[in-house]
Automatic annotation (TrEMBL):
<keyword id="KW-0963">Cytoplasm</keyword>
<keyword id="KW-0285">Flavoprotein</keyword>
<dbReference type="GO" id="GO:0050660">
    <property type="term" value="F:flavin adenine dinucleotide binding"/>
</dbReference>
<dbReference type="InterPro" id="IPR023753">
    <property type="entry name" value="FAD/NAD-binding_dom"/>
</dbReference>
<feature type="binding site">
    <location>
        <begin position="152"/>
        <end position="154"/>
    </location>
    <ligand>
        <name>FAD</name>
    </ligand>
</feature>
<keyword id="KW-0676">Redox-active center</keyword>
<dbReference type="InterPro" id="IPR001100">
    <property type="entry name" value="Pyr_nuc-diS_OxRdtase"/>
</dbReference>
<feature type="binding site">
    <location>
        <position position="321"/>
    </location>
    <ligand>
        <name>FAD</name>
    </ligand>
</feature>
<dbReference type="InterPro" id="IPR016156">
    <property type="entry name" value="FAD/NAD-linked_Rdtase_dimer_sf"/>
</dbReference>
<protein>
    <recommendedName>
        <fullName>Dihydrolipoyl dehydrogenase</fullName>
        <ecNumber>1.8.1.4</ecNumber>
    </recommendedName>
</protein>
<keyword id="KW-0547">Nucleotide-binding</keyword>
<dbReference type="GO" id="GO:0005737">
    <property type="term" value="C:cytoplasm"/>
</dbReference>
<dbReference type="Pfam" id="PF07992">
    <property type="entry name" value="Pyr_redox_2"/>
</dbReference>
<dbReference type="InterPro" id="IPR004099">
    <property type="entry name" value="Pyr_nucl-diS_OxRdtase_dimer"/>
</dbReference>
<dbReference type="InterPro" id="IPR012999">
    <property type="entry name" value="Pyr_OxRdtase_I_AS"/>
</dbReference>
<feature type="binding site">
    <location>
        <position position="212"/>
    </location>
    <ligand>
        <name>NAD(+)</name>
    </ligand>
</feature>
<feature type="binding site">
    <location>
        <begin position="189"/>
        <end position="196"/>
    </location>
    <ligand>
        <name>NAD(+)</name>
    </ligand>
</feature>
């Protein structure tokens, strides 16, 4: 006898658990299965996927602690506070991080109970289709569901021939769990994860060298922001080698030796105590038995979906990191809600043009919409409003006035096309731009809105005013 549901969600990360909760709220008899690579030592299942267990949340906890440590070491003195030389207790910092993870993952179990979602502990794999719906093997049980949402997420990409032991050579899992500050840390990949993890361990005292294959730094970001970021991070002590080709990586008991060719073609060697490999992520489709039911994947191994996250199979949907688009938790959650609402016959919607990007470095970097280089390439006529945080009283009071806000608006219609921020609290400030763009707002709309004084949001306001060449404080 198989268990029967209206909806089965495969995977309990941000895409999966949100899809399950919303589907249940809309009246579907819903189950969510999770294969639980993050089960605790007692085998207790943990929901939340990459994001809560080994991604967004633990990384932000460590970024916060390391930021405080750095402030105590460098910034307090200038404000008249003496605390002596700060010391870091790494196991205590890691335990605090793990406590936050436990609290949040446990919270999702509570949300499942509240919303009457059935949690199935086991790996989900397609079996076939019967009259009652799609059949999926979950652990020992056969489950039948009228509709299936695949939300199996992604896993770290590893370098060929370089085994990750999460002790000497780490991916995101090990990088969030080091037992001590390495003296020398090598990072391969200057993407979001490499920069965030490199920042954590640099702030705590490691000598960090980042090797990146792309000749351009942060090629996805507006290049004005990328240039400023490279300047600031380098000043902070992160060492960057861009445009490199990685050669042989030799792993010993105490460290690694990385051979690489630099941007001029010269052979180089980097010795380090630890290596973090952050060269991207691959979609999790292995073990899903996609071929048994003819579920189509694209050339990148992602499940092929349309703008509404429909796959080629009727009643089978896919969301989050396992499909195209940015690998971001909030994008996964947006898609999840859209799918549940479409299943219920509602007008589910996900605007991919207003998905914000954030790097939680110091200063933070955040953007939404088009970059200046994208607008140039598309031949769009635009105007620019750019204001530094240095002109803002709150930023000066906080002792954190690095960076700027840059707004790009259509030269004819004034509609906001992109907003790019490097500076304190950029992760929060970007929401104003997202709201404005979601409502098809113009720079004049933001310029005419009253912003509280003194706040960092006044820099967004001034950037909007600057689009019309009438800033008041710069
Ligand atoms: P996942 O979170 O990967 O969840 C998929 C789940 O499915 C997993 O629990 C997995 O065990 C389970 N699963 C897989 N296959 C099966 C199967 N066959 N049966 C049952 N279960 C299965 N994003 C942000 O937006 N902000 C950030 O600050 C941020 N920071 C990050 C920091 C790091 C270090 C990393 C690694 C990622 C970060 N991300 C961040 C990305 C974010 O974690 C992902 O975009 C997000 O988790 C994707 O959600 P998902 O539900 O698609 O997949």
């Amino acid at each position: 006898m198989s268990k029967e549901f209206d909806v089965l969600v495969i995977g309990g990360g941000p895409g999966g658990y949100v899809a399950a909760i919303r589907a249940a709220q809309l009246g579907f008899k819903t189950a969510c299965c999770e294969s639980n690579p993050y089960a605790d030592p007692k085998g207790e299942p943990r929901l939340g996927g990459t994001c809560l267990n080994v991604g967004c949340i633990p990384s932000k906890a460590l970024l916060h602690t390391s930021h405080l440590f750095e402030e105590a070491g460098h910034a307090f003195e200038g404000q008249g506070i003496s605390v002596g030389t700060p010391k870091i207790d790494v196991p205590k910092m890691i335990a605090r991080k793990s406590g936050i993870v436990d609290q949040l993952t446990g919270g999702i179990k509570g949300l499942f109970k509240k919303n009457k979602v059935t949690l199935l502990n086991g790996h989900g794999a397609f079996v076939g289709k019967a009259d009652a719906g799609w059949q999926v093997q979950v652990g020992e049980e056969l489950v039948t569901a009228k509709q299936v949402i695949v939300a199996t997420g992604s896993a770290p990409r590893h370098l060929p021939g370089v085994p990750v032991d999460n002790k000497i050579v780490c991916d995101n899992v090990g990088a969030l769990d080091l037992d001590a500050v390495p003296k020398k840390l090598a990072v391969i990949g200057a993407g979001v994860i490499g920069l965030e993890m490199g920042s954590v361990w640099r702030r705590l005292g490691a000598e960090v060298t980042v090797l990146e294959a792309m000749p351009e730094f942060l090629s996805l970001a507006d290049q004005d922001v990328a240039k400023e970021a490279l300047k600031v991070f380098t000043k902070q002590g992160l060492k960057f080698n861009l445009g490199v080709t990685i050669g042989e990586v030799k792993v010993g008991k105490k460290g690694v030796s990385i051979a690489y060719r630099d941007k001029d073609g010269a052979e180089q060697k980097l010795e380090a105590d630890r290596l973090i490999v952050s060269v991207g992520r691959v979609p999790n489709t292995q073990g899903l038995n996609a071929e048994a039911v003819g579920l189509k994947l694209n050339e990148r191994g992602q499940i092929e979906v349309d703008d509404h996250c429909k796959t080629n199979l009727p009643g089978v949907w896919a969301v989050g990191d396992v499909v195209r688009g940015p690998m971001l938790a909030h994008k996964a959650m947006e898609e999840a809600v859209m799918v549940a609402e479409l299943m219920a016959g509602q007008a589910g919607h996900c605007n991919f043009d207003t998905v914000p990007w954030v790097l939680y470095t110091s200063p933070e970097i955040a953007w939404v919409g088009k970059t200046e280089q994208q607008l140039k390439a598309a031949g769009v006529a635009y105007k620019v409003g750019k204001i530094p945080f240095l002109a803002n009283g709150r930023a000066l009071g906080m002792g954190d006035s690095t960076g700027f806000v840059k707004m790009l608006a259509d030269a004819t219609t004034d509609r906001i096309l992109g907003v790019h921020i490097i500076g304190a609290n950029a992760s929060e400030l970007i929401s104003e731009a997202v709201v404005a763009m979601e409502f098809a707002g113009c720079s004049e709309d933001l310029a005419r809105i009253c912003h509280a004084h003194p706040t960092l949001s006044e820099v967004v306001h001034e950037a909007a005013l600057a689009c019309d060449k009438r800033p008041l404080h710069f």
